[in-house]
Amino acid sequence: MTTLRTNRDRLVTQILAGEVWPALADRHGYRVDADGTPFLLPGMGGVTLGAHAGDPATGYAGDHLEPGLSVRAADPGANMALQFLSCVGNVVTVRSGPAAGATGRVIGQHAYVLVDMPEERLALVSSGDRVSVAARGQGLKLTDHPDVVVKNLDPDLLDALPITTRADGRLEVGVAARVPAAAVGAGAGMVSEFANTDLMGAYAGQGADLSLGLESLRIGDLVALEDQDHRFGRGFRRGYLTVGVISTGHCRLFGHGPGPSTIITGPAAAFCVVDDADANLGALL
């Protein structure tokens, strides 16, 4: 195996601004799960304690669980820039409030940019606190793998991931799970720099008829999405492969589930996928 050659020396870093967005609801409150059971549970927005990279992604009393900080910008255009340009592994610095100066890392995108940091720091952050993101990574290319497209990945994190060039020229990627195309739910059809792909079949405790064997997913897991082409959006294409990082957790809403943010995509023949139970951001971040 050889190390990866990239164009990292031609990338720039752009400092983006956002704030911790509050959890939102409307007066109707309830949603309905896959079996028609109404529920009202915490999930998106605000500051979420008790779930970090390396922890289980399923089994919580929650819906659309967003670990850590949920960050966006108030201006719509600035918010889209934050979504499109923030990359997994980027450093995030809290700029206001009792936690000012604390740093964390982007672990993915959802309706917000999601930021993980140590629990004791998270507990000091409140909705409305300002943060900055050192956005770097969009435009990253793997010099020796022209058919493989990199998305949403900080080049410094790339060095730490179980990704190498094999002697036969293929890109070897260690993944914690392999995901069949049948599991792909909400998020299909969106551009792959925005939000993530919800995976069905991980409804822990909701019946074997809904299971695709994904209940053991963890936040921060690297996963291989089979027959998924995310080069120009997100969609089904036989013979393609996408690698993502699980950035959101448990969902009860039908068609939704733990969601990977895209980091690498291309023809399946360009990859050698290796099962690796330790392929997770937890120890790295």
TrEMBL record:
Pfam annotation, one family: DUF4438_C
Membrane-spanning residues: none
Domain DUF4438: 30-159, 161-285
Highest taxon listed in the record's lineage: Bacteria
InterPro entries, per the entry: DUF4438_C, DUF4438_N, TM_1086_sf, TM_1086_SG_dom
Protein name: DUF4438 domain-containing protein
Taxonomic source organism: Dactylosporangium matsuzakiense
